[in-house]
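Schema walk-through. Below, the input block comes first and the output block second. Nothing else is stored per chain. Lengths vary across the set, and this one has 381 residues.
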Amino acid sequence: MKVLLIGEYSRLHNSLKKGLEVLGHEVTLVGTGDMFKKFPVDESIRAEWLSDKTFPLLFRKIWLRLFKKDPAQWEIGYRFKKLLPKLKDYDVVQLINSHSIGTYPESEIKLLKTLFSQNGKVFLMGCGDDYPVIKSYLDGSMRYHMLTPYLEPNSKMKADFALKYLTEPYKELFHFVYKNAKAVIPSDMDYVIPWRGWDKVAALIPNPIIISEEYTPIKIENRKIRILFGINTMNYEKKGYRFFDEALDIIEEKYPDLVEIKRTKNLPFSQYVKELEHCDILMDNVYAYDQGYNALEAMSRGKVVFGGAEKEFMEHFKLKERVAINALPDAKKIAEELEYLVLNPDKIESIGFNARKFIEKEHDYVEVAKAYFNTWNQFIE
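--- output ---
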């Protein structure tokens, strides 16, 4: 099968590509690399001219301030248009979300019309921001979510990154993509829930993780417990990082001889993974029901993750033992969970072991690729 993957924000499409290639399929990944994360792609549409060169970058900043429109989106669209003659005769086209190219919505619709006309079946991922997801957040269908801090009284959080999907241009883009898609494939419970009620939604397929065979279970003996807090400053509010900061301050003050806390900011993914290797505990996300990509990468290495592990997640995967710590938006409760682990390091070892086994069972990238192939095949044959 010949597969075209458009967009990359988490490493999902990179890992899926690897799994599909193991199965003998031909895969092309198109994307921008997602800013500082620098995810690899086969065909780059990154706005290099308006990102790397001094005077064009200055022009971009001035234009954005004056007109509230980013000219880098134009450059992305221009680069994708130049690629279109090469992007033909694929059996499957999968979009990471409805705004997968990243240009202006009206331009994106025109580009997608051409793309869809010269390829096979279209599929849409349910793995991030999109019209149904943001609408569901504001309708109150979830107990908490990434816009919870935006909705709090006197909030100073900016949410344009999400609210844009409710504007008419982005709604039109979404409905165009949804109309042409054969199915929407959710990647975890954080997207299963807000996509409920949409008739094209397929069964959840877990995020694919490339699991290293080099695995040494955590052993805490005569050393400090290493806690990593990898901060993406753009996500500080929407991931509830302030609760982690407050909880870590409590633990650091109370147990300075037992813990070693490391905070990092905006690391490229390759460097972030190196930091993961050296920690025992990862502080990932407060406003989540399930695990995102960074959490899963840590769990595959046998680390204890503070993130999404809500009852909906536990029930879906029929779990009886904890594979991660459910981080609630409450610094005191997070600190209590951390304190329990610090005082009972054997629990860090056992939860980390459970996490590794869970990833091996549910997230192996080749098995996940098979699940995607089977889902696509239902609409191709």
